[in-house]
Design the sequence.
């Protein structure tokens, strides 16, 4: 389907469903306003079968590293990379005891720490306030984060982390009527299983974090360490919806060795379309370079030339548009997954509970080559601290690359 038809179809259905399901003009207005503020909590009216999570990534500058903290093999990279993911999960029924707010933390992708909070400790900005969310003592806003995380009894966590970071020059995926950020016009389709947003491709960090181990056994005796995050870089994205897709590939880094400030985001998934019971392969990806957004997405007319997945690497080649279009870009990615540690990210299972079952790396490496229509090389660089998830039977995605298919399907990669 050409992108324009998709826009019209998506918009028409979304407006009709919004109007038919909304008795109250005030709620309709509030819903529409939140569409243009993807950073804010979108689940205000939800009572069950819902999750929303914000993925905050922090990478220290070269001079600072956490040494051996949570890091059994001190790797070649001297940076410390961490993901802090605050979120909320609502279980199968409105009174489910599995509903909770949470914070997930991993340092260098070496082990996972999962902290649970009762729902009443989760608070958030409404549509007329500045964005923030707060879970317990932990606050997340456009200006930065303030952390005071420690394990409670029964938490799958052994890390204490405190400190404040401020963010400078955040760079969100722009949101407009015709393009709801990373989702583009597809974001208008109501009832999507999972919606994605890039809240900042890259920003600079200031501040420091103190970490200590909360366990007292002889193998894991670390005294508190404080690492400066001054001059480090951050990245923020989010997900919300009913469930994760059945399969996906996700890649992210903004730690390019020779291109500080450049950021890469790739998400390819099997997407159930609520209207017709179809399952379609879809993707949204972008390179943020010199403060410019170069989108590569199903809805922007981008096409795969190659998609290969093995246990050693992921290879991807995408063209941003038609072959002889002058505004065309081509991006080649080779993600090296060899000897990269993985943690288990907690994710919703069967709408009923959160369980650790999605393997995620934080220390993969990606070789990226970005070329223009004329073949000019714009970037040829290696990104460290690369987030990578390859989840489910992704061979189905590989089989749905248009160039490989014998008969043309309506929608392919
Ligand atoms: C949003 O919150 C502020 C501060 O609590 C409050 O004054 C305002 O009325 C709220 N706005 C809406 C639309 O609920
Ligand atoms: C972080 O900020 C909070 C709130 O502004 C403050 O109460 C706290 O003392 C700060 N923590 C550190 C370690 O500076
Ligand atoms: C999924 O949840 C339903 C209840 O909502 C339950 O009956 C079913 O056994 C669950 N399936 C799995 C695989 O956990």
Sequence:
């Amino acid at each position: 389907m050409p992108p324009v038809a998709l826009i019209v179809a998506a918009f028409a259905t979304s407006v009709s469903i919004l109007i038919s399901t909304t008795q109250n003009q005030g709620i309709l207005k509030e819903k529409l306003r939140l569409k243009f503020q993807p950073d804010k909590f979108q689940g205000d009216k939800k009572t069950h079968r819902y999750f929303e999570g914000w993925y905050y990534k922090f990478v220290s500058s070269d001079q600072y590293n956490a040494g051996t903290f949570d890091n059994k093999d001190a790797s070649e990279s001297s940076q410390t990379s961490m993901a802090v993911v605050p979120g909320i999960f609502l279980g199968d029924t409105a009174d489910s005891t599995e509903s909770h707010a949470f914070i997930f933390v991993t340092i260098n992708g070496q082990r996972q720490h999962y902290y649970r909070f009762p729902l009443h400790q989760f608070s958030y900005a409404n549509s007329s306030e500045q964005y923030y969310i707060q879970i317990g003592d932990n606050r997340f806003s456009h200006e930065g984060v303030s952390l005071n995380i420690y394990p409670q009894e029964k938490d799958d966590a052994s890390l204490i982390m405190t400190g404040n970071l401020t963010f400078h020059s955040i760079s969100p995926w722009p949101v407009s009527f015709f393009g709801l950020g990373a989702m583009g016009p597809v974001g208008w389709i109501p009832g999507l299983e999972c919606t994605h947003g890039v809240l900042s491709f890259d920003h600079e960090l200031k501040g420091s974090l103190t970490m200590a181990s909360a366990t007292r056994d002889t193998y894991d005796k670390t005294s508190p360490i404080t690492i400066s995050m001054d001059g480090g870089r951050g990245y923020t994205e989010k997900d919300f919806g009913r469930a994760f897709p059945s399969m996906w590939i996700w890649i992210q880094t903004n730690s390019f060795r020779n291109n500080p400030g450049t950021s890469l985001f790739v998400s390819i998934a099997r997407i159930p379309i609520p209207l017709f019971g179809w399952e379609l392969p879809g993707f949204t990806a972008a390179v943020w370079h010199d403060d410019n957004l170069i989108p590569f997405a199903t809805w922007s007319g981008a096409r795969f030339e190659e998609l290969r997945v093995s246990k050693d690497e992921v290879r991807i080649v995408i063209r941003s548009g038609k072959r002889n279009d002058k505004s065309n870009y081509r991006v080649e990615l080779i993600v090296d997954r060899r000897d990269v540690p993985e943690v288990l990210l907690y994710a919703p299972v069967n709408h009923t509970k959160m369980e650790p079952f999605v393997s995620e790396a934080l220390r993969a490496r990606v070789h990226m080559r970005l070329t223009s229509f004329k073949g000019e090389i714009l970037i040829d660089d290696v990104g460290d601290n690369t987030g990578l998830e390859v989840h489910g039977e992704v061979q189905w995605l590989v089989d749905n690359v248009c160039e490989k298919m014998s008969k043309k399907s309506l929608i392919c990669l």
Remarks:
- Helices lie at 3-21, 25-35, 395-399.
- The chain has one domain: 48-404.
- Residues 26 and 32 are 10 Å apart (CA to CA).
- The mean pLDDT is 87.
